[in-house]
Amino acid sequence: MLTDFVVIPADQLRQLVTDAVTVAMRKAAETTPPPASGNDHLPELITKKQAAKMLQVSTGTVDNYVADGLLNKLKIGTRNVRFERGEVEKLARRL
Questions:
Q1: Is the distance from CB of 43 to CB of 90 less than 8 angstroms?
Q2: Which candidate, 47, 56, 35, 43, places its Cα nearest to that of 87?
Q3: Does the model's pTM come out above 0.85?
Q4: What is the distance between the alpha carbons of residues 74 and 44, in angstroms, rounded to a whole number?
Q5: Which helix (H) or strand (E) holds 84?
Q6: What is the rounded distance in angstroms from the CA atom of residue 52 to the CA atom of residue 88?
Q7: What is the pLDDT of residues 13-58, one digit of tens each?
Q8: Rounded to an integer, what distance in angstroms lies between the CA atom of residue 72 and that of residue 88?
């Protein structure tokens, strides 16, 4: 079995790899849609205390709203709870 080897200087190899990666990145950029602007797709999350203040109720009443299915809570980790601001605002208009 005969194997051919090509010997080129390191700087020339580096330039060949750089050029190939640049071309590949440009092609990928042309075919990839732009990302959504900002955090428009992510809801703003607020604490229970902030939700209570917006609703003008106690934090215990916020817990009751969750238990009654009027408000959804999002658990962050094992102890933290957050609420979507838009959902709280919607509930505030209904009350």
A1: no
A2: 43
A3: no
A4: 12
A5: strand 80-84
A6: 9
A7: 999 999 999 999 888 888 877 666 665 677 899 999 999 999 999 9
A8: 9
